[in-house]
Design a protein that fits this description.
- The chain contains six helices and nine strands; from the N terminus they run βββαββαβαβαβαβα.
- The protein is globular and about 45 Å long.
- About 40% of the residues are buried.
- Helix 3 packs across helix 6.
- It has one domain: Gcn5-related N-acetyltransferase (GNAT) (Aminopeptidase, 3-Layer(aba) Sandwich), CATH 3.40.630.
- Strands 1-2-3-4-5-6-7-9-8 form a nine-stranded mixed sheet, sandwiched between helices.
- The chain is α+β, with helices and mostly antiparallel strands.
């Protein structure tokens, strides 16, 4: 089965009024097929969450996590996975979220829904020219604990920015689209994802996924990154304080 996008609505991560999210990618070379990035709450004093890319090591474990979450959520069977897989690990090292990436250097799964290539769809919808080499598809979004999706979206946005991608495209359910909106990340709606555009032999594997209003959406990576950095900045002296 082709890759799919999922979202399990998490409870919002709680933080004090005086703290803000700190995101940073460590320039570590891959070790054992794993690349690490971290996320934490400034001043929290807790070990940060880690975002790991699984080039080879432990990839099967991440695939099993994604398959289980999709089966529990939609009764879906995920039989094929994106070329790049990531897992979010909690401070104890447990997997609490995962997603996958596919560069538009190859045909995107979501292009099955479109009548034109993704770069044309982006240009038609946004008025901005897009080159395939600057576009990436994200899918397999899944999480198990409160706040996991927020952390993954933040780390995903920063990673894509640092890798030089300009546009991110995905098939998002209502819950996933709302998660981006709550974080102040603008999305441009392209069209609905129509089950009938898939080969007949693949439709049954999706379970109830299409009952959750999946739509093709795109976001401008730099704009999203700047929006997150602005929200992550501490308040200026005198702002937000009572006289």
């Amino acid at each position: 089965m082709p890759s799919v996008s999922n979202f399990l609505p998490p409870a919002e991560m709680c933080s004090s009024a005086g703290s803000w999210f700190s995101l940073f990618i460590h320039g570590l070379r891959p070790s054992g097929g794993i690349v690490r990035a971290h996320a934490g709450v400034t001043g929290s004093g807790v070990r940060p969450y880690e975002l790991l890319e699984h080039a080879s090591a432990d990839r099967a474990r991440v695939e099993n996590f994604i398959s289980q979450r999709f089966h529990e959520s939609f009764g879906s069977r995920v039989e094929a996975f994106m070329p790049r897989l990531f897992s979010l690990r909690d401070p104890q090292g447990n997997i609490c979220g995962a997603f996958g990436l596919r560069s538009a250097s190859r045909r995107l799964f979501l292009e099955q829904y479109l009548d034109v290539p993704i770069e044309r769809a982006i240009a038609d919808r946004t008025g901005h020219r897009a080159e395939r080499r600057t576009i990436v598809e994200v899918g397999h979004f899944s999480g198990t604990v409160p706040g996991a999706m927020r952390i993954m979206i933040r780390l995903l946005t920063e990673r894509l920015h640092h890798e030089g991608f300009e546009w991110v495209a995905f098939t998002g359910t209502t819950g996933l689209r709302n998660a981006f909106g709550r974080m102040g990340l603008p999305l441009s709606d392209i069209q609905a994802a129509d089950r009938e555009r898939l080969p007949a032999t693949e439709r049954a594997a999706w379970g109830s996924y299409y009952d959750h209003d999946p739509r093709i959406v795109v976001g401008h990576v730099r704009q999203g990154y700047e929006a997150l950095m602005q929200r992550a900045s501490p308040p200026a002296p005198g702002q937000g304080e009572r006289p």
